[in-house]
Amino acid sequence: MQTRGEEEPIIGHTTPAGGNVFRDLGFEPGEAANLLMRAHLMMDLEHIIKERRLKQKDAAKLFGVSQPRISDLLRGKMETFTIDSLVNMLGNAGYRVTTEVRPLPQQHGVATEAPAAAQA
Fold first, then answer.
1. How would you class 52 by CB atoms within 10 Å of its CB: exposed for 0-12, middle for 13-18, buried for 19 or more?
2. Domains of the chain as residue ranges with CATH
3. Which of 26, 51, 55, 90 is most deeply packed, by most CB within 10 A?
C-alpha cells in the first residue's frame, strides 16, 4: 500500500472486479444492486452520446426526454433517474436492455442461497 510520508494511506480498500462499490459503501444488497444497475445504464447512455458526438438537445430528442434531463444524466445525478426511465431512454434510441439474475457471492454476511423458485 502506498503512503505519503507519515500521512494516511492513499488507498485503503479497493472493490474487486465484478464487485459492487455501493455495497462496500454500506448500502443494503437490494439498494446497492439498484444503484449499480442505474450507474451502468447511465454510463451506457453517456457512451452513446459521446460515441455519436451528440449535443444535449440532440441527445434529448433521441432519448425522448428534455435537455435538462440530459444535463442531469451527464452530471451523474443518479438520484433523479429510475431504472425504468433509463431503460425507456435506451429503448427510445433503438437499444434493447437485457438483464442477468444470479445469486450474490457471500460477502458482508449475506447468504448466497438461491430463492426456492430458482432452485426448481
1. exposed
2. 21-97 (1.10.260.40)
3. 90
Other Cβ atoms less than 10 A from the Cβ of 81: the count is 19
What per-residue confidence (pLDDT) applies to 112?
A: 47
Spatial distance between the Cα atoms of 19 and 33, rounded to a whole number of angstroms: 10
Close Cβ partners of 42 (under 8 Å, ≥ 6 residues apart): 73, 76, 78, 81, 86
Q: Which of 8-22, 31-45, 87-101 has the lowest mean pLDDT?
A: 8-22
Residue whose grid cell is 436492455: 97
Position 1 confidence tier, pLDDT thresholds 50, 70, 90: very low
Q: Return the C-alpha torsion angle 47, 101, 89, 44, nearest 10.
A: 0
